[in-house]
Amino acid sequence: MLEATVRGAEPVADRCCRVESGNDRMRAMALVAGGLIMALAGCAGRGPDGPVSGVAEAAQMQPEAGIAQAWTYRNPSMNPRSYSRVLIDPAQVYHGAEADFDDFSPAEVERFAQMLPDETRKALQGSYPIVSKPGPDVIRLRFTLVAVERTVPYAAKATRIIPIGAVLNLGKAAAGEGGSLTGSLTILLEAFDSQTGKLLVASQRRVSPGAFDLQATLGTEETAMAVAKQVAAQVKQRFDAIRAGS
């Protein structure tokens, strides 16, 4: 006569209850995560509420239409086509009252900052001469890191995967914003005439990676690298547009 159950096997009814209980826990976790995403989605990111005081022309920097936390100064006498070579300064770290680097160490902040000129140099090489000395046709670029917003690694990735988080990030992507719980860098980029030192352009931005850049959600260092590559690509695009006469 066969036994009702195999020795050591779990009764079917108990197993079904356990599966349902496990599914309930998963649903509860998803709801909690979704609630966390909703609670944090509206939180303001780190970064100054206006141009940093360390820029000589800060009072003349104007908000960029349609871009949050973005201000620009353009010298009205600037002729960008008079420059054909590029001098890129080592990165600067801002130490004014508006600086905000969370609890990152000075070495970490320096590393994040240096990614900006390093990636810009890589992006421009091969298309524009990179020089080490001032000259009559040399524009000098200087990047200053003003603030760092920390990425929350696992939560940031979850917002791309959990359906409600994906919907939120889809809206952010459409608006050109970074994803939920992904950090940012606030950057000041200045362009000078390399011989006279005259400021040509000053642009301050809070920059986040693309909303669905999963690599950038792994940690703040990955976020900083993604931002540096993004900024470098934008600098090259602007140089290309000037060269093309647009």
Describe this structure as you would to a colleague.
With 246 residues, the protein is an alpha/beta fold. The protein is 38% helix and 19% strand. The chain has helices spanning 12-41, 106-124, 153-161, 163-174, 220-243, and strands at 62-63, 70-74, 85-88, 92-93, 130-131, 138-149, 184-193, 199-207. Strands 1, 2, 3, 4, 5, 6, 7 and 8 form an 8-stranded mixed β-sheet that branches. The longest helix has 30 residues, at 12-41. The termini are far apart. Residues 1-10, 15-21, 25-45 and 155-180 have low confidence and may be disordered.
Summarize the structure.
The chain is of the alpha/beta class and 246 residues long. The protein is 38% helix and 19% strand.
Provide key terms for this protein.
246 residues, eight-stranded mixed beta sheet, 19% strand, disordered N terminus, single chain, alpha/beta
Explain the layout of strands and helices.
Elements: H1 12-41, E1 62-63, E2 70-74, E3 85-88, E4 92-93, H2 106-124, E5 130-131, E6 138-149, H3 153-161, H4 163-174, E7 184-193, E8 199-207, H5 220-243
Parallel strand pairs: 3-5, 3-6, 4-6
Antiparallel strand pairs: 1-2, 2-8, 6-7, 7-8
Structural class: alpha/beta
Outline the biggest β-sheet. Answer: 8 strands, mixed
Low-confidence region ranges: 1-10, 15-21, 25-45, 155-180
The number of helical elements comes to 5
Number-wise, the strands total 8
Instruction: Characterize the overall form.
Output: globular
| Helix coverage percent | 25-40%
Beta percentage is 15-25%
